[in-house]
Amino acid sequence: MDDASTPGPKMTATRLAKRLYSTFTGLHTSDALRIIVLGCVIGVISGLLAVGFYGALNYLQELLLGRIAGTPMPSHGLSALTASTSSPLYIPLMTTATGALIGLCMHYMLPDSPDLGTDGTDIMIRAFHGPTGRVNTSITAVRGAGAILTIASGASAGQEGPISLIGAGAASWLADRLKLTARERRTLLLAGAAGGLGAIFRAPLGGALTAIEVIYREDFEADSLLAALFSSTTAYSVFTIFYGTDPIFHVPDLKLSSVSELPFYALLAVACSMAAWAFVWCFRRAKYHFFAPLRQRIGVVGTTALGGFMAGIVGMLFPQLLGGGLEWVELALRGDLPLLALCLLALGKTVDTALTIGSGMSGGMFAPSLYVGGMTGTAVGTLFQTYFPDIITKPAAFGIVGMSVFFSCATGASLGPLVMTCEITGTYGLLVPLMLATGCGLLLSRNISLYNNQLPNKLASHAHTHEAAVNLLKGRKVAQLPLAPPPPVLLESTKLGDLRGLVTSSRALCYPVFNAQGAMTGIATLSDLRDVLYENCLFDLVVVKEVARPPVFVAPDADGYEALLTMLDTGLDELPVLDPVTGTILGMLDRKALLGMYRPTHPMATNAPETSGLSCS
Predict the structure, then answer these.
(1) Is the pLDDT of residue 468 over 70?
(2) Which of 79, 228, 295, 351 has minimal CB crowding within 10 Å?
């Protein structure tokens, strides 16, 4: 048997992926089918990665916090004011060691990592808006492993940031192996992030909507919705095979009792927007005004170690703040925490998260946002119930709404947090107050954001420079556009042997061809000439007229958008601009130059990230 027909050790996973991809997408199938196939593939990958991430986190958390530190898990009836650990001194030791280890990894492997974004989600956003839409796999690995250690050791952080970055990193890796375009890579990147979010939070629709929404303040990436939906659904299916379909929170099925409650939910939006403002302000103060100058003096290792130590001290004194802490949010929603505890825990989580993420340790902002929003909402609901017991009977409903509103206010996302809150609580009877409070909260928090790299809309992103450039071209004459100098003109009768020196010394991609009477009769591209230029036997036999294409040109008064369409239809990278009166070439339209006319403001160009998205001092 022929060895070539037998798969050998060289049939790697990459080659197999390429072969499968070619099978499904290489036969002129529709773009929708390509997106579905890619979304499902990255959904399987991100789902398996979420399984590994979640399993490793649970194992280490049980080992470090459960067995070594002896931290009690909250249970029904346990007072939040009296919870304590059996070996509290281990907590700051573990968080300090974790901070030092993460700092060492960043110092030697990712020296620019502290400046890439606030957390994993922000790094993913930066990659999407970048010129290539590519995520560095080293950043993904280090940040993902660092987040597991950060949360498991007791520092305050969540799983959303690292898992969205892990999913996006896997998507970027797959896109490179399949040699996808930058646009397809960006679509796959958001699909990977959606898969990670949908799996780890068991919220497929919320994960998909959040992924395409969180990259902008006032927009969303509709082009990636299909891929995100299929990826998130597939990843959720993979994850639930291992961990079941139960929602994260086990709370009573709540619903709006009366329309008389709606004004109170509007007031809740005011409280959540103020809490979100304080959360973002505290985080940015810690990151850019305390830890950033400190990093210049003692280095990244000392900074993350100090942040871990400070977060560990807070966790040692208040074990209710350790890790993600969502178990305590569920306890609050059950009504087992007094008003004072709710307020203190919301404030403590704000400070603890600022110390953890602000120092450069790895982790996400979503779980802390759920924590603070849930505590704030439940506290407001409890307060309303005290003074209006006939109207407000279920403070837990305010806690659920508060989780969504708080994260929406802090990030600018609206639909994603709203749907995800319903999915993680299994409660869909609060959609009306969720919509009302989220809308009010967004109106009150338009100038704040946790994410430095989040842009206002598509026009500010590198991902949509072509669309913006096309809009600029519409209605503009060719004469008003930038033109490259005219290339050398070729005569029909010129022999190929006379062109070698000209073509090798010129940077032009297209050459107008003229006849002896001075009229343009064709156009010769560099690729056309190269096909025959190095055939020595043809030097004296073939002339330019025989290799030239039919003439293609535009007039100076032609529409710029129509000129671009002409280039796209003919496959030419350059187009001659011909004077209709004199018949001379005025210049060359360059397709890349036209599409590059629009230069968006990209977050990587900013030198003051601490002021991005927050108009407070």
Answers:
(1) no
(2) 79
